[in-house]
Amino acid sequence: MQISSKFTIAVHMMTCMAYFTEMEKVTSDFLAGSVGTNPVIIRNLMLSLKNAGLIEVKRGTGGATIKKPLEEITLFDIYAAVENEKEKGIFRFHENPNPACPVGSTIHKTLDGRLAQIQDAMEAQMRSVTLWDVIRDTREFNL
Amino acid sequence: MQISSKFTIAVHMMTCMAYFTEMEKVTSDFLAGSVGTNPVIIRNLMLSLKNAGLIEVKRGTGGATIKKPLEEITLFDIYAAVENEKEKGIFRFHENPNPACPVGSTIHKTLDGRLAQIQDAMEAQMRSVTLWDVIRDTREFNL
DNA sequence: CATAGATGTAATATGAAAAGTTACAGGAGG
DNA sequence: CCTCCTGTAACTTTTCATATTACATCTATG
After folding, report:
1. If you write DSSP's letter for every residue of B66-117 in order, what string do you get?
2. Which band of pLDDT confidence, cut at 50, 70 and 90, is reported for residue A85?
3. pLDDT at position B124, please?
C-alpha cells in the first residue's frame, strides 16, 4: 500500500498559500480548484494543518495563511500534521502470528526495532526539505 | 496509508525457512500456521520470492528453501520481491492538479525528485539489515 | 501407475480505509 | 441582515488488501 495523497495535497495547499500570498484570498474553494478535488477534503486538511500550528485560517472572511517562516517548515511537519497513522508506523504487521511457534512468538521483538529505524530514516530525509525549497522551485518554473 | 503486511509476512516466512531448515518440511500450510493466515496468501508470496530468486520451491513433494546465503539477503530484497507497488513509489499523488494554475502545473516537477529521495533513504536503511541479523535474533530469543 | 500431498492459479467474497459528496450550522465583514 | 466562508457531520462511492473456495497440475513414493 501507499501513503495517502493527503500528504501531497497538503504540500500543494501550502505551496499555494505561499505562492499566492497577497495576490489572492486562498480559500478552500480556490485550493480545491488548484488541487483538483473537493473543498471539504481541503477544509479537513486545513483543520489538521491549523491544529499543528502551521497555518492560520480566518473564519467569516475566509482564507488561509502560513504562520511560520517557510524555511522552518519541513515536509515532515506537514506529513506529521495530516497523516494520523503516523503513530501506527508505516508498516502494517500481520496480526495473528502463532504464539506457539518459536518464530511467530518472537517475530515482533525481532522486527519492531528495525522497522522503526527504517521509518526514522525516511522521516529524517523528510526533515531535510523545507517549504522554502519547494516554493523556490515553483517560482523558478514560473518565470 | 501503510505498506501492506505482505512485507512482514514475507520476512516471517523466510525466517521460518531458515529456522526450521532440516527440522521440518516448510510447506505453505506450515507457514500459514506460523503466520496466522491463509495458505493461498502464503503460496502467492512464495511465488514472488521464487521469481526474485530468493527461494526454491519444490513441486510435488513440497517445501521451500532459501537459495542464497542469509547474509546476502537484505530486507530490501524481500520488500522489492513482494511489494509490486515498488515501481509506483510509496507516495500516492493526487491525480488532477489544475494545469491552468502555476502551482498545479508544476507541483509534480517540484516534488517528484524529493519524494524519490525520501524513498531512497528508506530503501537504503532496508538494505542495511540482512536476514542473518533477523535469524540471529530469533535464535537468541529461543535459547 | 495410482495416489497422496503439495504447489500454481483463477475467481470471487469480504472488509476496511481513502476519497468524494451533500447538507447545514456558525462566524465575520460589509 | 446578507453574503461568503469555515467547521463538521453523515453518507456514498471507490479502491485495495486480505481471505476464501475451488481445482488443475506436479512429483515422490508405495
Report:
1. E-S-GGG-BHHHHHHHH-GGGTT-SB---S---TTSTTTTTHHHHHHHHHHH
2. low
3. 98
